[in-house]
Design a protein that fits this description.
- The complex is a heterodimer of chains A (156) and B (308).
- Chain A is globular and about 60 Å long.
- With 156 residues, chain A is mainly α.
- Chain A folds into 2 domains: 81 residues, no CATH class; 75 residues, no CATH class.
- Chain A contains 7 helices and no strands.
- Chain A is 73% helix and 0% strand.
- Chain B has 308 residues and is mainly α.
- Chain B has one domain: ABC transporter involved in vitamin B12 uptake, BtuC.
- In chain B, strands 1-2 form a two-stranded antiparallel ribbon.
- The longest helix of chain B has 29 residues.
- Classes of the chains: A mainly alpha (156), B mainly alpha (308).
């Protein structure tokens, strides 16, 4: 265990509060939902997008800091290859909810970490984890097509 | 220019050679993505397709001793991945960008998984045509050793430009990309057009991958592609969805990528990694100069999920 997880948890909770419990977050959700409506009610969409991009970049930079300072302990050229893309997919799987990102990210991290075990115990190549992750992502994203089609899951 | 030494002329020559060598995968992937995006869909998975193409080309070339069969296999593998992307995206409410990233991970993972036994052996490589026979200088000869795939790619750009403008097929792809309602009203299946366009795009991206493993750098390992697939997708936006501009953008990108090693070879070693960033700086600079807050991207297909 290292302090990176604490950073991640705090960042997730902070962005949850920011998106769902502040005026700024509400404005951002309006702009994300319908950009024309946001412009009509007088929100400065450009400024919103820019600020959100700054925050997103800051969060990604924090992840890089944790990777260097707590996991690797040093920098090298091929550090953290692919975390960015997986991160985008984690956000998709969590349906853009910062609190849901926490369990999804932990699940995906667990699958990645199981790579070493698969390699030692079953003699599988280390890329099998990547294949598994790819298959999971493809199936979960494709299941978006079932959204609202299954009776007992329909809810309100 | 005595004794075959050409001094500082090495730099532009190496940039030219680099533009020819490095740009071929960019050329194929960006032309393929251009077709896919013109039909109204973004396939971000071309990075995975590229790596998968490189692996299958190397494997088939190793087994059959025929590099051209390897190129064909790479294209077929790419078309299969394209069909997978198009098939999943045909389902309602599925986000093509997210599926693309998922297929990128899946494709690279699968290529590494299947390609493990291919790291050691050497496969038959693609031949190069020597266009520098008239020159005594070795650097000129090296720069002008051109692969046939590069020539095919260069020829493909004007053909696509012409096909998009004048052929029935090109018009249909553009209709599906600009207004799916219009295509449907004409009685064509938009999903089928996009399936075909994505498969052709995957086919071309696979061929781009075969260039990586069969010509330059010319071997199969897991560090083969350093994000060329993703970069080529960005180049399509940079080139405003125009096949001819895609070609020029790929060439400029390849040339800029060769700047760092070229300067190093004449002794300019300070800032080597900074010069390696030259293609990205160039792309960013042109994007910033040509964009405007007053209008959206010109030439963007109206059905793309980023413009809709």
């Amino acid at each position: 265990m290292h302090w990176g997880l604490v950073f991640g948890l705090i960042a997730a909770i902070a962005s949850y509060v920011l998106i769902y419990h502040t005026t700024f977050g509400f404005a951002a959700r309006v702009a994300g939902g319908n950009i024309r409506a946001a412009k009509i009610v007088g929100l400065s969409v450009g400024k919103l997008i820019l600020t959100i991009c700054f925050l997103a970049g800051a969060a990604a930079g924090l992840a890089g800091m944790v990777e260097v300072a707590a996991v690797q302990g040093r920098t090298n050229a091929n550090l953290a290859a692919g975390y960015g893309f997986t991160g985008i997919l984690v956000a998709f799987l969590a349906r853009q909810n910062p609190l849901a990102v926490i369990p999804v990210a932990i699940l995906l991290g667990g699958i990645s970490a199981s790579g070493g075990l698969l390699q030692r115990r079953l003699g599988l190549p280390d890329a099998s984890v990547q294949v598994l992750q790819g298959i999971i992502f493809v199936f979960v994203l494709a299941s978006d097509a079932l959204y609202g089609r299954i009776g007992f899951l329909k809810g309100k | 220019m005595a004794d075959g030494t050409i001094g500082l002329w090495t730099v532009p020559l190496a940039v030219l050679g680099g533009a020819i060598r490095v740009s071929t995968p960019f050329l194929f992937v960006s032309l393929g993505e251009c077709i896919t995006e013109r039909s109204g869909r973004i396939n971000l998975g071309l990075e995975g397709t590229l790596v998968m193409g490189a692996m299958s080309a190397y494997g088939i070339s190793y087994v059959s001793d025929s590099p051209w069969l390897g190129v064909l296999a790479a294209g077929v593998a790419g078309a299969a991945l394209g069909a997978l992307h198009a098939g999943i995206c045909s389902l309602p409410r599925v986000n093509d960008i997210a599926v693309g990233i998922a297929l990128m991970l899946f494709g690279t993972g699968l290529a590494f998984y299947l390609g493990k036994p291919l790291i050691e052996p050497t496969a038959a490589r693609l031949p190069a045509i020597d266009f520098g026979w008239w020159s005594e200088i070795s650097q000129v000869r090296a720069a002008l050793r051109i692969n046939v795939l590069f020539l095919i790619g260069i020829a493909l750009a004007p053909i696509l430009y012409w096909a998009f403008r004048t052929t029935r097929w090109g018009l249909l792809v553009r209709t599906a990309g600009e207004s799916s309602d219009a295509a449907r009203a004409m009685g064509y299946s938009v999903l089928l057009i996009r399936l075909r366009a994505t498969m052709v795009g995957g086919f071309l991206a696979g061929i781009g991958g075969s260039f990586l493993s069969l010509f330059y750098p010319g071997s199969w390992n897991e560090g083969l592609s350093s994000g060329q697939g993703v970069t080529a997708v960005a180049l399509v936006i940079f080139a405003r969805w125009d096949p001819m501009l895609c070609m020029w953008a790929s060439l400029a990108f390849g040339g800029a990528a060769a700047l760092g090693p070229a300067l190093q070879s004449v002794g300019v070693t300070s800032g080597y990694h900074l010069f390696n960033a030259a293609p990205y700086i160039l792309t960013l600079a042109i994007m910033i100069i040509t964009c405007s807050p007053k209008r959206t991207l010109t030439g963007a297909p109206a059905e793309l999920s980023i413009t809709r």
